[in-house]
Amino acid sequence: MIFMQRKLLFILLSGLTGLVMAEPLTLQEALDRAKQNNPHLKAIKAEEDKASSEKTTARSRFLPQLTLSGRVTRIDEPITIDLTPVRSAILGSNYASTYTSVYSVTQNSLGAATANTMAQTAAASGQTALASQMSEDKFKIKVQDDLFFNATASLVWPIFTGGKIFPAYKAADENVEVQKAISNAEENNVLMEVCTRYFSLRLAEELVALREQTEKSLTEHVDQAKKLEEGGQISKAERLRAEVGLAEAENDLEDARRDCSLARLALANTLGSADTAIDAVTPIQEAKANGSLESYKQRAIENHPGIRQLRLQKKRTENAVTVARGDYFPTIALFGQKELYTKDLTILQPEWAVGVNVEWNLFHGGETAGAVASAKATQREVECMEDKATQDVSLLVEDRWREMGHAHSRIESLEKTQELTQEALDNQTKAFNAGMATSLDVVDAQLSDSRLKVAMLKAKYESMMALAGLLATSGEVSQISNELEK
Known about the structure:
The protein is of the alpha+beta class. Helix content is 70%, strand content 12%. The protein has helices at residues 2-18, 27-37, 39-59, 84-110, 112-133, 165-230, 236-270, 293-303, 305-325, 367-433, 439-472, 480-485; strands spanning 23-25, 65-74, 79-82, 140-144, 147-160, 278-280, 331-339, 352-359. Helix 2 (27-37) crosses helix 6 (165-230), helix 3 (39-59) runs antiparallel to helix 6 (165-230) and helix 8 (293-303) packs antiparallel against helix 10 (367-433). The radius of gyration is 48 Å and the shape is rod-shaped. The two termini are 53 Å apart. Residues 1-19 have low confidence and may be disordered.
């Protein structure tokens, strides 16, 4: 009773869902929508923009750096220079020179005593007159007020950095390419996921239709069995066996509908949408490779996003070695400085200055050697990773190629059996209606035909997934629609 209630509820919900018009969606439309709306791809695009910004930062190191600075300062007291000893020395020198001059002129004519008196008087008078002109305040110079302002424009332009700037810029440029390769790889993975979920939905929809057809056929068979039982042509056991087969078909249909709903939700999630009212309309078909195994291997080795990323990283590690070696060389830079506010400048401060600055760290304690060795080790590591990735991708192509071959073999085998199972079902149905076969024979024939059709669908699905996988190895999943049309 509980099982019947659950089944009735599921059928009711499925009917209500069917009232919503589902949007037909082709594979190419699904791929395009994922490129625009997938949250993971949006995040990767932000990382790519970040790498471009870092490249701009690296380019700025080629240009001079101009800085404007301003400052207001308060000190405990004004700074002054006391030149009183200089004043005393000047006065003393004046006294001595005047005395000597007067004494030498008057000594011969007036005598030594009179000449000395006159020389002292003249020297004292001259010193007093000079002292009155040279006040002590003039010999106490204020160099800096206790509150002063500064405004300065400074320019620094590195002209030689031991080969660091250009390799750093190249590394930043290659980092942009690496990030693009990462974006392509992630986009390739997301589009592969879209293909998988899209065709999983399409397979689920096909299985629902197939299960519905099987249920319909077995329902008709049960109705026929009831009529034949009423006419006494078959036993009750045969009618019950037909109903058991119908119950199994109904359970399979319910499971198929549940799987279809889940597949639709998974696809909508990958497309970055909450709307699950979508129907996959690109049919499941036998997919064939458009080229040889060797051609797919060559395309994969040349274009696989992961291998391309490692190649770019290898170039970046080469630049990293050059940058590390730059610490062995001096750094030379031009500099200039201009005071924009000169009112509070001291007598010791120039209004402008230009020059060349050289800095050379002659001993790093082994730091530079260690950095160079580390960069070289990273370079070797990336080279080894590239070699391994090339081998892994070649093996992956081989595996996908074999998967496709296996799917083709199954399809060929199933095609040979398909006509036989259909003919057997028709014969058993006619024989049962004529009373020449049992209900068990019809049910078995119907289920065998259904299993064969399911196997055929899955084999075609596997061939399409193998083709998508082959394209994924060369970063060409977005071209799968074109490949399927060839």
